[in-house]
Amino acid sequence: MSAIQAAAENYPTHDLQAHTNIPVETLRALYLPDRDLPNGTAQNASTDSTTVTFPTVRTEYPAVKKLNPLNKKRILVTGGAGFVGSHLVDRLMLMGHDVICIDNFFTGTKSNVSNWIGHPNFELIRHDVVDPIMVEVDQVYHLACPASPVHYQSNPVKTLKTGFFGTYNMLGLSKRVKARFLLASTSEIYGSPAEHPQQEEYWGHVNPIGPRACYDEGKRVAEALTYSYSRQDGVDVRVARIFNTFGPRMNWNDGRVVSNFILQALRGEEVTIYGDGEATRSFQYIHDLVDGLIALMESDCKEPVNLGNPDEFTINEFAETVSRIVREVGGKVKGEGEVRIKHLPPVEDDPQRRRPDIERAKEKIGWEPKVSVLDGLRETVLYFKRTLEE
Ligand SMILES: NC(=O)c1ccc[n+]([C@@H]2O[C@H](COP(=O)([O-])OP(=O)(O)OC[C@H]3O[C@@H](n4cnc5c(N)ncnc54)[C@H](O)[C@@H]3O)[C@@H](O)[C@H]2O)c1
């Protein structure tokens, strides 16, 4: 039994149950629709080699909760068309809130939120957060920022502008309309950590001039701005330090470990590992992260909170597990059962170890991950397989 399989035994339920009382099947229908249902095709395009056809017929939107107007919030999600943002939008919509999604579609897509376009509770605005915008809302989830090295390093100056001006504009907006503000920060603010696991008190070990600095330092200045607005202007702030997250709708060509492995295994290619594969990572499933973001926003906790899954595995273990799951779901893996791994030179400044200490999240917001990496990987492989087929 692999370490990832063994760890899965510690999870109470072997399913993808989320905390916010939204049935998993309801969430699943939004990213992995049943092909036989009329609405199931709404987010999927059919395509041949030269053309692509998007269906226009949607008989009805997914059912959303009917909220008492006093409990119904107007919620802004910046970066809402991205991987994390679109799952957050799904959840907030299903919970019955009014949701405004702002995105410049740099890495996000309209198809990620296509389930909701035209819905009376939903608004999609193409906008770059580097420029100011004014909307009347009660809460701001500020996620807009490219998250993968391929994307954030493609224009590092823009990444820094997004980190600073984007956060500055959203904090200014929150101050003006008295909205509660949540920053999607990152474990990258710990850099290549000298402490393990990483607690929120740890100040980090970041290379300020390396290729990852535009993202890491962008997020660090975003945190500094957030707490400055809190101290100086009384803005009600929350900071989530998000650790590696995976799941359906993650960008599949951004070179991140999970998507890379799944795609390579599904395509029958060699699985490429940078370095010797003994570096460790911990990955949380997207439903757990969304639960954590909502729990943090609704809590009284103003301190930064780590949101991640503390189960830690080597990159080699991930490669083997992904290949095995791909075989289980009927995908291809080169070498008939044997994992073929190609080792490439290590990436500059790539941290060797990363694992969250989540004691604060448990204590202050009552959150901990519920989905094992194994269950999450199975769902993600299914999603990628379906998407590749389409
Ligand atoms: N996915 C992870 O593992 C992870 C880990 C740590 C932190 N985070 C943070 O969570 C947030 C979401 O990450 P993700 O994985 O969904 O990435 P993503 O790239 O899928 O989503 C980011 C979204 O922000 C949009 N965006 C980027 N720059 C923008 C700008 N200037 N104006 C408006 N929209 C802009 C993109 O188009 C995209 O829709 C990011 O802030 C990221 O730093 C993610």
UniProtKB/TrEMBL annotation:
<feature type="domain" description="NAD(P)-binding">
    <location>
        <begin position="76"/>
        <end position="380"/>
    </location>
</feature>
<keyword id="KW-1133">Transmembrane helix</keyword>
<keyword id="KW-0456">Lyase</keyword>
<protein>
    <recommendedName>
        <fullName>UDP-glucuronate decarboxylase</fullName>
        <ecNumber>4.1.1.35</ecNumber>
    </recommendedName>
</protein>
<dbReference type="InterPro" id="IPR016040">
    <property type="entry name" value="NAD(P)-bd_dom"/>
</dbReference>
<dbReference type="GO" id="GO:0070403">
    <property type="term" value="F:NAD+ binding"/>
</dbReference>
<dbReference type="GO" id="GO:0048040">
    <property type="term" value="F:UDP-glucuronate decarboxylase activity"/>
</dbReference>
<dbReference type="InterPro" id="IPR044516">
    <property type="entry name" value="UXS-like"/>
</dbReference>
<dbReference type="GO" id="GO:0042732">
    <property type="term" value="P:D-xylose metabolic process"/>
</dbReference>
<keyword id="KW-0472">Membrane</keyword>
<keyword id="KW-0735">Signal-anchor</keyword>
<dbReference type="InterPro" id="IPR036291">
    <property type="entry name" value="NAD(P)-bd_dom_sf"/>
</dbReference>
<comment type="pathway">
    <text>Nucleotide-sugar biosynthesis; UDP-alpha-D-xylose biosynthesis; UDP-alpha-D-xylose from UDP-alpha-D-glucuronate: step 1/1.</text>
</comment>
<keyword id="KW-0520">NAD</keyword>
<keyword id="KW-0333">Golgi apparatus</keyword>
<comment type="similarity">
    <text>Belongs to the NAD(P)-dependent epimerase/dehydratase family. UDP-glucuronic acid decarboxylase subfamily.</text>
</comment>
<dbReference type="GO" id="GO:0032580">
    <property type="term" value="C:Golgi cisterna membrane"/>
</dbReference>
<dbReference type="Pfam" id="PF16363">
    <property type="entry name" value="GDP_Man_Dehyd"/>
</dbReference>
<dbReference type="GO" id="GO:0033320">
    <property type="term" value="P:UDP-D-xylose biosynthetic process"/>
</dbReference>
<keyword id="KW-0210">Decarboxylase</keyword>
<keyword id="KW-0963">Cytoplasm</keyword>
<keyword id="KW-0812">Transmembrane</keyword>
